[in-house]
Amino acid sequence: MLPEMAFDLPIEVAGKERDQPTRADPEEDMRKFLAISMLVLAACSDAPAMTEPVAANSVPSGAMTATTVINGVTYEYGCPDFPCPITQIVVDHIENHLWFWMPPGTFAKPTIYLYILKTPVQLRQVAPTTVIEPPVIQPPPPPPTLTGPTIVVGKVFGPLSQITCDHFSLSLVSPDGGPWDFVTGQVTYEYGSVDSYTAVFTPNGNSSVVGFNWAAWNQLLAGTYTLYPPFPNTEYRAHFKANLERGTNTATVEHTFVCRKAPPPAPPAPTLSGPTGILGQRASKTSPFVCSNVLFTLVSPDGGPWTFVSGLRKIEFYMFDMIQNKWVLNGNSQTASVTSTGWQQLLAGTYAINPGVPSGPYKATFTITLARSPFQHTLTHSVDCGGPDFFDL
To answer: Are 295 and 343 in contact (CB under 8 A)?
Structure first.
C-alpha cells in the first residue's frame, strides 16, 4: 500500500502571486509521487542499479498498444495512457507477472505497478468479441403427392338417383416420411358421361364445388369416404384438392378419378367358321396354288357388333412323304398381316389366298382379334389349299 501524499507545489499563474498554492490533480500527484519514489529507491538501494539494462531495452518497439490476459480478462495498455509507446521490457515484465495491482481509484483505470521497473501501467479492459452465428436455414421439405384410383364404379342411390362412389382411398405420399397437416380442401364434380365400353369420360359442361374438412380428409385417406354429387343421375369426374402445411411450409396436393355407373356385363364370345379345304388353282407347275373366294362367317351370339382390331395369316407348306404315303408339313412357313379390308373380304367371300411363291399345297391359318370395347376376343380358323391330288389322299 502506497502512503497517501499530496503535493502542494508553488505554481506561477498569470495574475496571481507566485507563491500562491494550487491543488494539483490526484492522478498527476500520484505520477509525481511514483517518479520521485523511483529516484529515491534507486539512489538509496544497495542493490546494483537497474537503470542500465532498462535503458538498453527502452528503445520503442513501434507498437502503440499491447494486450495481456489477466484472470481470463483481456486488457489493452499503452497509448494514449502511460507508457506510450510500448517497450519490449514492459511487455516482458507484465507477461512474467512482475507486478501487483494498485489500489482501486489510484488512477482512472485499473492499474498495475511493475515493481522492478518501478512504473505503473494503466489497463483498459477489452470487450469480448461477440460472434454472431449465421442462422441455419433448413431447406424446405420435398412436396407430397396424392395418389389414388383413376376409375371408381359407383351405384345409384336415393330418390335423386345420385351416383355415389365409395370404398376408395387416397394415399398421401411424403417423400421424406414427414407429416403434413390438413388445412383446407375441396372436391370439384365435373359432370358428363362414360362410354360403356371404352370408359372414356366426356364432360357436359356442368360442375359443382364442395368443400371438405379435416374429418373428411381423414376418411379419404382411410377409404371410408363417400361421394354424394349435388347433381342427380349423372356420371362425373371428381377432382380432389387439399392444402397442407408443415410448420411454415405449405403444399397443395391434387388427384382426379372418374366415378361411373357399373359397366354392362361382358358380351358372349363370337365364333368364326369357314371351309377347311379349298381346291386351289395354279397357272403352271412352277406357280403357287391360289385359293379364291374364301368365305368366313362370324357368329355373334347376342347379335351385337364386333370391331376388327388386328389379323394375321400364317401359311405352312406341305410335302409328300413317300414312306408314310401322305402329305406332311415340311417346316417352311410365311406370315402376312390381315388388314381390315382383308377381313371384310373374308366375310364377303372375295378373299384370295396367294402365297406369292411357287409352291405345293399349304395350310393357311387366320388369327383375327375383334373387340366390343373394352372386351376383346381372338378367333382362329385354318383352311387347306391344294390340288386334286392333295385332297384325293
So the answer is: no
Contacts of 42 (CB under 8 A, 6+ apart): 49, 50, 51, 118
- The amino acid present at 47, given as its one-letter code, is A
Classified by CATH at the fold level, domain 151-260 comes out as Immunoglobulin-like (2.60.40)
At residue 236, φ and ψ (nearest 5 deg) are -155, 165
The alpha-carbon radius of gyration of the chain (Å, integer) is: 55
What is residue 19's DSSP assignment? Answer: T
CA–CA separation, 154 and 141 (whole Å): 37
Q: What is the DSSP string of 321-351?
A: ETTTTEEEEEEEEEEEE--HHHHHHHHHT-E
8 Å CB contact between 350 and 393: no
Whether residue 285 contacts residue 328, with contact meaning beta carbons closer than 8 Å, is answered with no
Grid coordinates given for 113: 505497478
pLDDT (tens digit per residue) in 75-114 = 999 998 888 888 899 999 999 999 999 998 888 899 999 9
Give 240's DSSP letter.
E
Q: Say whether 271-392 and 151-260 share the same fold.
A: yes
Beta partners for 160?
none
Report the alpha-carbon distance of residue 205 to residue 170 in Å, rounded: 26
Examine the pLDDT at 229 and tell me if it is beyond 90.
yes
User: How far is it, in rounded angstroms, from Cα 111 to Cα 293?
Assistant: 127
Cα–Cα distance measured from residue 33 to residue 29, given in angstroms and rounded to the nearest whole number: 6
Q: Please say if the pLDDT value at position 205 is more than 80.
A: yes
Residue with cell 509507446: 85
Threshold 0.70, pTM exceeds: no
Segment (H or E) for 29: helix 26-44
The dihedral formed by the CA atoms of 56, 62, 68 and 73, expressed in degrees to the nearest 10: 150
**Does 271-392 carry CATH code 3.40.50?**
no
